[in-house]
Structure formats: structure tokens, C-alpha cells
Amino acid sequence: MNEKHLLYAVAGLSALAGATACDGPSGKNVSGKKLNIVYIMCDDHSYQTISCYDGRFIRTPNIDRLAQEGARFTNSFVANSLSGPSRACLLTGKHSHKNGFTNNEHGVFDGSQQTLPKLLQTGGYQTAMVGKWHLVSEPTGFDYWDILTGQGDYYNPVFIRNGERLVREGYSTDIVTDVALEWLDHRDPDKPFCLFLHHKAPHRSWMPDLQDLGLYDDVTFPLPETFYDDYESRKAAALQEMSIIADMNLIYDLKMADHENEFHTPDNPALESYGRDLYRRDLAPGELVAGRMNAAQQAAWDAYYDPIIRQFKEDYASGKLSGRALYEWKYQRYMHDYCRVIHSVDRNVGRVYDYLKEHGLLENTIVIYTSDQGFFMGEHGYFDKRYMYEESFRTPLVVRMPGKSRKIVRGGDIEAFVQNIDYAPTILEAAGLEIPEDIQGESFLPLLRGRHPADWRQSLYYHYYEYPAEHSVRRHYGVRTGRYSLMHFYNDIDEWELFDLQEDPQQLHNLYGQPGTEAVTDSLRKELVRLQLLYDDPIRAQNGF
Ligand code: SGN
Ligand code: CA
């Protein structure tokens, strides 16, 4: 136990001494009631845009409050930075090669396997899944499921509710929250519950709620230092199609279509026609059409965007917006919409908190807030995720523990390495249920209770598979320790990258093969092999090193 943890343990003991009752056994609160779990997960929410992680961009008071009343994990990671795979890790507590869902393109989740919700159900829990599911097969193990189809739409989205299709009018983040709270209203109050509340937001194409249009209009967001990264020494970093400059679409992503959808960029007409196809503005006014705005929504939308579009076209035609001016305009446009979408997420996190408080549930419910992965906010010039680079490998994680146990949780930071394969065992332990042997993650409940197991993991394993595919990020796997990250990009390339995160946190200098790095490379490769054996990843045998 290091000095800091000793301090926390002492703080925990004194909090205990001051309390009238002590923390109950796992899975129960002081009054002997089973703990409930509310697991809120966004899609593509960067830690950079949560103010308790990073104060540069926006304020997120409701997410921050969960951290202030609980804990903020400062080293939280995913196993495979992509939606479907992350969701499969959550459900199984296993790496992608074990749960079978390695990529979005071809993945169909095998719902017949052991999963967290099924284990919870067997243990007497009511389970619900509301919002983005993205695993293709029908959900299993849920008493109630009410999921967005595919990626889901921001406006008037289609849901499948226990097998039945329906369109709900309104804005996705609000509706998903409404449905989740309605389910809480109708649950059996005598049984504990685990609610998975999964937003589509802030996934591409970052469409804000109408009430948030105009928010941050007067803000100029700081350009990341690595926005104009030239990828020197990193071939695999250059080989992608997720550059704000080159790949972000003016119409689809940045909403610069006029009413005739006639805007063209002479340098990339193909990209713009793709954008036009995706940007769904061909409405049937008055009718409720899934994924499209109704007439009133469209009018409010146009009232905000039309002047921006006019100005943009003028500045583009006059040459005022070209080169770096255009690139930085794109960055600002992207950030404005993305941050507005987050504002609505944060407001809805507040609604969940208020509901739990008003219904006396806050003191008996663990509230988790996280994302399916991190996201690039212009670092290395990127949007999207997928890479094992820090911005997408990491994911935000804050956890508010309930009641008396909250008091013995040291408010503040937990620095230990956690990964999304840990959610299932953590939730099982919190529910007082057994953690099956074959689960690969570790319960981080002890960390939340102010303890730090001596044998806690010191390194993380990562494996990304989706290539060839959209954004063209090459397949890779790697290991990360407290100081270094080593990755191997394979398939149609064979490139290694090594970063010293202490000296080079922005990961600009690939040290692989540099004189003087032999010993550290060797020990990292050994650790990588150890993890591939531990997690039983067949790639090791295939790559034969
Ligand atoms: C969509 C997006 C991509 C994104 C993937 C995966 N394109 O295909 O930009 O990387 O989802 O995202 S879009 O044109 O359809 O918006 S994930 O979070 O679901 O894995
Ligand atoms: Ca995602």
C-alpha cells in the first residue's frame, strides 16, 4: 500500500467510525437491501469534454457531480476502441476474441453465451437495456429492452421494444432517458434492478438538440497542439481516413447543405455527394418519418444553420476560407456541434440523478457513467477513435457509490488501471453474486471501497480488428504499462510503434528500433506475450513471435 492509499484507508476508517452503521457485505447496503445499478454509457464521449477530466472545453456539472460524490477513474481504458466490441466486452467481461464480437462490420453478438444481464437475472435482479445496442442480434438476459436500431438516429428515432418496432418523436438523448425513467416507474419495487441506459449521443454526425443550437456560439475552442501532426516516424498513424482536414464531410458532418443540397467542394466532389446522401433532409412535412425531422424541427434547425451556411458559402467562394483557415473553421464547426450534444447528455444525466433522489433510490444505487470508448477532438488532426493512442484507448469512467458506502469511498481519483472487461465482474460483485471463473476482467469494487489489491494489474492489453473498413485504421494489438505503450500494426502492414508516455504524452515520437530502447522493447514484448497467453488470444500463434 503506498502513502496515498494508506491515507485513503485511514480516511475511510475514520468515516466508518463516524457512521452509525457500517458498510454491509457485498451486494447490500447498510439496511440489508440489495444494491441497484444504473449504468449510463454514451457513444464516443471523449474525456476531454468532461469538465472533471479536462477543463479546456465545456462544463458538465451533472457528470462532474457523480465524480465529486464518488470517484473518478484516471486510468480507464477499453479493450478494442469501437462500439459493438465495447458493448460485447461490457456484457461478457471478456476480450473480443473470447466473446466473438471483434468488429462492427461483420459482428453478430452470440446472445446464447454467458452474459452479465443473464447472471444478474439468475441472481434475482430485474434488468433493462434502453438505447443504443448495436450488437445486431436481439438482446438476451433483459426483462425489458427498448433499443435504438443500428446506430440510432438523433431525431425521431426508431426503437425496438421487446421485439416490437416503434418510432418515437423527439430528440434521442431525451427519449432514451424518458424510456429508462418510465421503466424505473414500472419496475417491481421489491426487487433490485440493473438498468443499462445507453445513449446514441455524441456519435457522428453530432446533431444537437434544437434547444442547444446557438450554445457556445461565442466560444472559440482551443486547437489541439497536434492538430497539424505530420505523422513523421508513424506510418500507421498516417494510414487512416479520419482526418478533420481531409475526411470530415462538409455536408454530412458539418451541415453545410443548402436547401437544394447543391454545395460542392471542387477538390472532393465524391466526398460531398456521399455527404448529400447521408444528410437526410428530404422530408415529408407533417409526417413522422424515422430518422428525419418533422416540419417544426426542420424549421428550427434551418433557422439556426441557414445563416451559417450562407456565410460559409460566401467565405468559401471569396477564398477567405481556404487552407488553414478552412481547416480550423472545420474544427470549430465540429467542436461546436459535438459540445452541444454533450450538453444535452449532461442535462439528462442530471435528470436521472434527480429521479433517483426524488424516489429515495440514490442511497441504494450505484451510478456509473462511461463511454463505449474515447474520441479524438482534433488531436493528431483526427476525429473518430479505433487507435490504441491515448485519446481513443482511454474512456471516461466516474462512479457514484451509494449511501454509507459512499462515505468510505475516498472521494477523488482512482489511478489503478481499469478496463471495460472489468464492468461485468464489478457489477456482479456489487450485486453480491459470484464472478464466474472464465470472466477475464477484474472487479474494481475493492478500489471503490478504498482498498488497492496488491496484485492489481500493472499493464493493459488492447486489440483492434476492424480493417479493411471505414476510416482505414490498420489492425493492431499492443500493451500499455504505466510509462510505455507498444503497438504492432499488422494485416497489410507490419509496423511497430513504441512511445514513452512520460516524455512524450502526445505520442509523436515513435521510439521503436531506436538505439537505447532495446531493453525496454524487449521487456514490453515479453509483457505483450504474457498478456496474449493470459487472455488466450490466438493472434500470438498466427503472428508467431
Ligand atoms: C459509423 C460512422 C463512423 C464510425 C462508425 C463506428 N460513420 O459507421 O464514422 O467510426 O460508425 O462508430 S457514419 O457515416 O455512419 O456516421 S461506433 O462508435 O459505432 O463504433
Ligand atoms: Ca462509439
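^ SGN complex. The CA atoms of residues 101 and 332 lie 35 Å apart. The first helix runs from residue 3 to 18.
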